[in-house]
Input
Amino acid sequence: MAIWSVLVWNYYHGGVPRHHILHREDLPAISNWWGDLLLPLLTWLLLYRIQNRLMRDNIEKSKVSKLRRIILYGFASALFFGILLSVFFTFGYSNISGYMFIALFILALFFPIYRAECLLGFVIGMTLTFGAVLPTAFGTPGSIGRCSTISICSTRYIIRWIKFWTHTI
Output
């Protein structure tokens, strides 16, 4: 409902924005109208994945409450990051927002930002400024998600390998 409110407000106040690919006028534009389909579908899909993760790991109540807390922290952190990135971009600090976007790849080394709650928070945090399509495209497994998965898995593998070899010596 919120995405429709934003789109209707944009429509009557200068038109619904379009975003050109790579911010170049000669490339095709993506309209924010796609967000009215994408955001509810993405939210449903990601909440379904979060629910499945909770049900799959429902062994003990203490683990479920800890997992819920982890999910909430992941969502809130990604939401805050998305809002902050949007605010810096809106107020003309595109250098800071560019550095923040690059910082996501560094954060992906230490935190599992490929999870559903992180993607949902990131997309919702950036929807008002960029629409739902661009944050979804950058956050899905096509870019940030895949880099996060690869970096987390490879970092953990390297740490285990180092621990194994240091204990055998």
Q: What stands out?
A: The chain is about 75% helix and 5% strand.
